[in-house]
Amino acid sequence: MRLKPDQLAGALERGLAPVYVLSGDEPLQLGETGDTIRAAARERGYGLRELFHVEPGFSWSTFLEASDSVPLFGDLRILDLRLNAKPDKEGTAALLRYLDQPPSDAILILTLPRLTREDLNAAWARVADTAGVIVQVWPLQGRELVAWLDRRMNRLGLLADQSGLRLLAARVEGNLLAAAQEIEKLHILYGTGRIEDEQIVSAVCDCARYDVFDVAAAMLEGHTSRTLRILRGLEGEGVAPLVVLWAISRELRSLAAVQREIAQGQSMDGALARLRIFDKRKEAFARAAKRLGRDGVLEAIRLCTRVDRIAKGLEPGDPWLGLSDVCLRVAASS
């Protein structure tokens, strides 16, 4: 069964599953999701916890031996298995063996980085999906981030207008750990009750954290102001312009390939699937392909070529201004 993080609490109230698979690259949500499951298990008498870190040299037989053993006093157990990559061949075999007949006195919490659609089609993941719960966490943006901030503030008895929540979101986007810390700071400074926009401006530092894929995604989605804000953030963090250009050019080349497939008679869904563009990227690509047209994409790619020459010193100019031109050409196209 697949659940979103905000659906997990309700599912836990109805009972525990034998296995939980938690995946994602957003550490705060991932950690708090695991905390929620462990707390629910402890309330139901799962007093023992065995922690396994799967690192180079890890012996999967150690995990299987622990899962097969019976505690001396018959205590219920949490088997907390943490991977820093998808399971290898040995790990896959061990998980399949475990999932074939999970011990009745234990629940398994398996935490690992983001799983792709292909990863979720692996045999162990399909069995886990049937036998238990898979929770994927994603970086929060836009309205999802604002809603998350609102819920987080409400837990501490804080209220803010939508304008204040959007202001807070702009300052902490891409960094939920900083967001949680800033909300706690607001609670310490002002106590419970309504928080005015001016108080947020005064108390909250600009902790937004982005990577080069964020700017490419915002550009394709047509979010002009957010795209430029991310660009400024990357420039301020000292990211090399050529690295940003690589991410932007990569998406534009993929977009050109989508349009080429469509021109050859392929449907939009078929073209996106053929080029392995799934999940959240799929919708953004579809909108951008229709919004820009083939000429718009080719013009943006030509602008990228000019930025490349500027960044390499072959042509005068500021590469960050050139990147802004590219992003505006894509994001603001009508």
From TrEMBL:
GO terms for molecular function: DNA-directed DNA polymerase activity. Keywords: DNA replication, DNA-directed DNA polymerase, Nucleotidyltransferase, Transferase. Signal peptide: none annotated. Pfam families: DNA_pol3_delt_C (PF14840), DNA_pol3_delta (PF06144). Residues 20-117 form the DNA polymerase III delta N-terminal domain. Residues 215-311 form the DNA polymerase III subunit delta C-terminal domain. It comes from the Bacteria. It catalyses: DNA(n) + a 2'-deoxyribonucleoside 5'-triphosphate = DNA(n+1) + diphosphate. Its EC number is 2.7.7.7. InterPro entries: DNA_pol3_clamp-load_cplx_C, DNA_pol3_delt_C, DNA_pol3_delta_N, DNA_polIII_delta, P-loop_NTPase. Belongs to the DNA polymerase HolA subunit family. This is DNA polymerase III subunit delta.
